[in-house]
Write the structure tokens for this entry.
Amino acid sequence: MSTNRNISLFNKKLILQAVKDSVIKLNPVTLIKNPVIFIVGIGSLLTTIIVFVGIYYGSFSSFNLQIAIWLWFTVLFANFSEAIAEGRGKAQADSLRKNRTQTQARKMSGNKEVLVYATELKNGDIVVCETGDVIPSDGEVIEGIASVDESAITGESAPVIRESGGDRSAVTGGTKVISDKILIKITAEPGNTFIDRMIALVEGAKRQKTPNEIALSILLSGLTIIFLLAVVTLPAFFGYSLKASGQPLSNNLTIPVLIALLVCLIPTTIGGLLSAIGISGMDRLIQHNVIATSGRAIEAAGDVDVLLLDKTGTITLGNRMATDFVPSEGVSAEELADAAQISSLSDETPEGRSIVILAKEKFNIRGREVHQINATFIPFTAQTRMSGVDIKAPDGTVRMIRKGSSEAIRNFIQCNNGFFPQKVIDIVSDLARQGATPLVVAENNKVLGVIHLKDIVKGGIKQRFAELRKMGIRTVMITGDNPLTAAAIAAEAGVDDFMAEAKPEDKLQRIRDEQSKGHLVGMIGDGTNDAPALAQADVGLAMNTGTQAAREAGNMVDLDSNPTKLIEVVEVGKQLLMTRGALTTFSIANDVAKYFAIIPAIAIALYSGKNNIGPLSALNVMNLGSPQSAILSAVIFNAIIIIMLIPLALKGVRYRPVSANTALSRNLLIYGLGNLPVRS
Amino acid sequence: MTTLELIQIILLIALLIGLTPFMGTYMFKVFTGQKHFMKPVLGWLETLTYRFINVMPDEETNWKKYTVGLLLFNFIGFAFVFLLQMLQAYLPMNPAHLPNVSWHLAFNTSASFITNTNWQSYSGETTLSYFVQMIGLTVQNFVSAATGIAVILAVIRGISRKTTDKIGNFWTDLTRSTIYVLLPLSIIFAVIFVGQGVVQNFKSYETVQTLQGTQQVIPMGPAASQIAIKQIGTNGGGFFNANAAHPFENPTPFTNFLQIFAIFLIPMGLTYMYGKMVGSVRQGWTIFTAMFILFLAGLCISLYAEYSPNPNFGHAKLMEGKEMRFGVANSVLFSVVTTDASCGAVNSMHDSLSPIAGMVCIINMMLGEIIFGGVGAGLYGMVVFIILTVFIAGLMVGRTPEYLGKKIEAFEVQMAIIANLSTSFAILVFTAWACMSSYGLAGLNNSGPHGFSEILYAYTSAAGNNGSAFAGLNANTIFYNVTLGIVILIGRFGVIIPVLAIAGSLAKKKITPFSSGTFRTDNWLFITLLIGVILIVGGLTYFPALSLGPIIEHLLMNHGINF
């Protein structure tokens, strides 16, 4: 379902736009946001001026011109990497935005409807949407119920129900009402809707740098200053050496050579790609149909080391299934199955249906129509906590079949002057210990036995948790079940810890406890109850189907409302950080080579004899022909490497769920020592 | 190299490694306020000191107060030493009737001694009286070393504590390191040195008739007491001009062995103490190993260079500038250890080392004096590199960088960069200035790349707070005294202040518990990374300068040209 937003790495339109943007980005106001590249920009300008001044005085230097050209290319390539990452993100966001700007909204003004543009809607406005209308902005349903097509943002074609009150009241701008009519209260300021935020996160100019990016920028700027010192002091050392070797001071290093040296030494590779890495991390998140409301959240996702996961939907399939009938004394299993099936005929819950199916599979008892056997369905209520049927026999007696929790049935039996057999008590506690839900079936004053309802743990989830453990992430299962049941499921799913009989406020407390121990906590939630916990968690992933309160509280929204998504979010976060680290290491390690190429080359004539080849030629291990060619080749390599690494920056380094140590060794081998330019 | 020399080097290393845990454990007990065997002996002195300076020993402060205390203390020390020199002629214990010292030399010497640099633009026996040497310089030898220990203690507390702004009490740390660590050790060493023939008296200089019939003035003085602390506290400021090459300062091979031993004793022990205080001895040994590898590499290169024949003379083991008593191996060993540990004492003239051995000395200092380094200073310098390493490589495990559970964020990176930048700025900019100005070039005794190396060595030694000199340079001029003094101050406080800021910032943070997702900082991989970052970030900056100095000189030597 996310395939439709997987935009191919390079397509012609994107590249053309990116080329155009990379020129526009030469504007010093935007360029200065990237100090390393800004320095290169200044260098390019200076070199260009020197070339023209040279021409004016009639001494054209093709070497200087070439340096100037390649320096400009270095800046352009860096801009291009940012532009192409932005372009990919924007392409995804643009279709949504296009939808919205043309939308007209039916705003309620008093009792009258007024037609306004969607972009003019303010927080608190109330609009009406009917079949066929596009919902103009983010909001909350305050009246009515409707089915809504959210495929524009989720890619999921099946419509979803949105209704006032409850946990499914939030609607997103750009989605479409397919049936019925709803009144919506707008909850977003103009320009601050989900889609706007999504766009802002992938647009370089407006993008806020994340904390780690800021720290890395400081490091890169610091290194730049250190190398700047090394370069600006060089002419002084050189001048001394020239004097000492009896050569004229006019042989001292020229400004273009110094600039070229500087550009080769400062970490231009990571400086140029840093922004692209950040943007494409956001982009990958969007490909998973997750929207982050801040860049900080995605870094926190990489850092998270405790995940709070709801049992239902995340660890187990949403529904319990009947897996066995355990009869009481003096009752046959078939008898029990028959009664259980009859009591469940009108029970449309998945549990009820699973009972009907199990009876049919095990004892070939066919389902009957309720009205044929003259039965009245007794639905489940919160008070009785049981359901069942009353069957009127022709003689006027009534068969009352009930199923429910052991306590509810015990009450029922006692009211009918029956007794609750010890064997059933044993069965019930035994099943509970196994993590199952025992459902007791009774007829009139007799207990027939127990239906074994079991939580089905999702396939592959155990493996997933094992991977998380390897990465140093602890999983905590949250469930309303009793501790016995919870423990059994926790063991089966392989989670590290569980919270049984958890109330929403327990979740919040648990998060606070973990955080005070230094952990970073990620959780997923949907209800208004979850909002405080979502806000407290370091990564709070709200489901799109959840309430507006939950969506506002979390720092990410999962458009698919898939509870396992949290795990993928963590992986995207880690991948982003790894990519940043790998390219930083690559960039810094790469300086060494360029150093050894340039320094011997420019100092080759010092202390030389008649042949003009001085002693430092011994260090010319790369066998570069002339000083000029050495400098030029280093500058060209320096520029080209940025372009070559763009695919890696956009795709991210390959991610595998392994321990920190293994990941480090691997990345270090490839990006530090290997200095492999591009991953195949 | 003879087998005996090899055995001696191995013995030295084995002895130092063996004593590291003992020193570390002892200092751990001293600085965490636990019971230790020196407490009953010297406890009264500690209590008395607190009462005298009016300090509550357990009252801890935040990093800003800690820093202010440190700066204030150092400033008072500076002013005191400065005035002593300016008024020397009117003060007692001046049997040679030495005159007042010039203002710029006094400035340079004060800056140099309060910062544990002990760069000496003067020669001790002809410039400073016994009084100034004892009351001024020897006192600073103690407290400047104690200041270094205080800083690393604050850093360790910053790392190991959580969610607090308290990083200790500067005065307590200063007092404890002086009384329990530096004082007992220097007494032990001073007594041994006296036993071996190092002079310790208040006599006037003696004039004797030499065998050739000429007159020679033999300087005297309270040397042993100053020499013990000069080695123990990695100060390096000699009592006599010739430093540890002078027979009254370093008379026998045994004292020579002990002096080398004394330089590394505390810095090595501190790594162990570090491990204990952050809760993992392994972390301490990791740092130790990284430092040790760098030390060994430098030593091997240096020995190789000295034992390779100089093509112009056709034989190895040139003895120029070395003492017959010690020979080549011991001179090289001393030169590597003294530049590793920011000590600066010398038992040979580094100016006469082969170009590559000389370069090893310069590189040792350029890396920021982190190869065991000055007392305390080496370790906090190393922490700066650890922070940079963790930040650069830590991301590769897919988490934002952390060290020992502490997140390394923008502020820490910024401070680490400032610390790094201070030294690079001081070395490069001032060397460039000296190369371009006539005042700078006036002091040179040698031409060509060797002259350049001399200037580079001087500023590197000053910025690294080492204090050793390449000799050839006449530094007692206004230009050199003032610029070197400034470089010394930048190299010291330009690192201490940001490092203390890091300590304060780390102390406020939570500690993320260790898990398999944590970037490990206690294995061989980390050691490799750390050394890589030290060489690339700390060393690469100076590659152009080194190419034009020792490297080119070495190559020219192979072409038959000497300087």
In short: Chain B has 19 helices and four strands. Chain B touches chain A through 70 residues (CB under 8 Å). Strands of chain B lie at 206-209, 215-218, 402-403, 406-407.
